[in-house]
Specification:
The chain has about 350 residues and is mainly α. The protein has one domain: Farnesyl Diphosphate Synthase. The chain is built from 16 helices and no strands. The longest helix is centred in the last third of the chain and has 26 residues. It comes from Histidinibacterium aquaticum. Keywords: Carotenoid biosynthesis, Manganese, Transferase. Pathway: Carotenoid biosynthesis; phytoene biosynthesis. This is Phytoene/squalene synthase family protein.
Length: about 350
């Protein structure tokens, strides 16, 4: 399905760019691991282009064009694009899922801020839950309950990332904590950006975000039992490794401004061993009722798309409007450079 040289390139990109995902992927069966590495490499490199580049709007527009080419069966001649196109064809990947990621990256390119936790969750749904839903597709899982819990896990992971990177993001001029939390805490978000400090109100916001992530990690666990038996250990590992980042943040007194929480290699190995045990236990336990809980409102359209229960036309309109806005911004930016 995927050219071996292209797969090797994707594997190397993930090995150096995402230690946590690479570690967890080692516990997946090859039939899932290989396309998952290719998928994650495509998504990760697209995210890096927007996150680290000087021309963010142009990077998103380029990604839009790359998706069009991949779905037309004539991908751009790069290892990640060729591998992604192979995935699209082999697994009949619903286009709404990578387009959700595209939308989230466009919000990043615009420098959007999020008024409420629900808006932060909507952002997390696009940049993380969309990938979780695509992972289910790679496992040939289209069950709505399993998809809903995979989306829960994606949001939990992204909230953990946001909690870990508060200081790093602030120094780059970005804020992902809800604006109404800043207002409740009496903290001026622009003043925080100018001089990010791990004050007590900021630490409390980090703790609050981690509490929401923990709630979703627990909801997500029931969905692992609905996955293929040989894929459960890898997903347990991902859940445990990302949740461990949250524990490190708590151990640091919820200071993610002056320090960055990390999990070491030995800790990852221990968590992978725990994942093996939990996977075996999960196989013997009856399914929990929370498996059938409805999806989060912010992720419901991803579940619909992955389960093939019908398209969401309104999302297409919104995405087109968003791309048009970015194109205008890109043209304006080029005009200023040429002036």
């Amino acid at each position: 399905m995927i050219d071996p040289d292209d797969l090797a390139y994707c594997r190397d990109a993930i090995r150096t760019g995402s230690y946590s995902f690479h570690a967890a992927s080692r516990l997946l069966p090859a039939r899932v691991r290989d396309p998952a590495l290719a998928l994650y490499a495509f998504c990760r490199l697209a995210d890096d282009a927007v996150d680290e580049g000087d021309h963010k709007a142009r990077a998103v527009l380029t990604l839009r064009d790359r998706l069009k080419l991949a779905y037309a069966g004539c991908p751009r001649n790069t290892p990640t694009d060729r591998a992604f196109a192979a995935i699209v064809e082999e697994f009949e990947m619903p286009r709404a899922l990578p387009e959700a990621l595209l939308e989230g990256l466009a919000w990043d390119a615009r420098g959007d801020r999020y008024a409420t936790l629900s808006e932060v969750t909507s952002y997390s749904a696009r940049v993380a839950s969309a990938v979780g839903a695509m992972m289910c597709v790679l496992m040939r899982v289209r069950d709505r309950d399993a998809l809903a819990r995979a989306c829960d896990l994606g949001v939990a992971m992204q909230l953990t990332n946001i909690a870990r990177d508060v200081g790093e993001d602030a120094r780059a001029g970005r804020l992902y904590l809800p604006m109404d939390w800043f207002a409740e805490a009496g903290v001026d978000p622009d003043a925080f950006l100018r001089d990010p400090l791990p004050t007590d109100p900021v630490r409390r916001m980090v703790a609050r975000l981690l509490a929401e992530a923990r709630r979703l990690y627990l909801r997500a666990e029931s969905g692992i039992a609905a996955l293929p038996v040989d894929a459960r250990t890898g997903i347990w590992a991902a859940r445990l490794i990302y949740a461990a980042i949250g524990r490190e943040i708590r151990r640091n007194g919820h200071d993610s401004v002056s320090m960055r929480a990390r999990t070491g290699s030995l800790q990852k190995i221990a968590l992978m061993g725990e994942a093996v045990v939990l996977s075996a236990t999960t196989s013997m336990m009856p399914r929990h009722a929370v498996l059938h809980a409805p999806p989060l409102p912010e992720t419901a359209y991803l579940v619909d798309a992955a389960a093939r229960t019908g398209p969401a036309p309104q999302r297409t309109v919104e995405l087109l409007d968003l791309m048009a806005d970015l194109a205008r911004r890109d043209r304006a930016g080029r005009g200023r450079i040429g002036a």
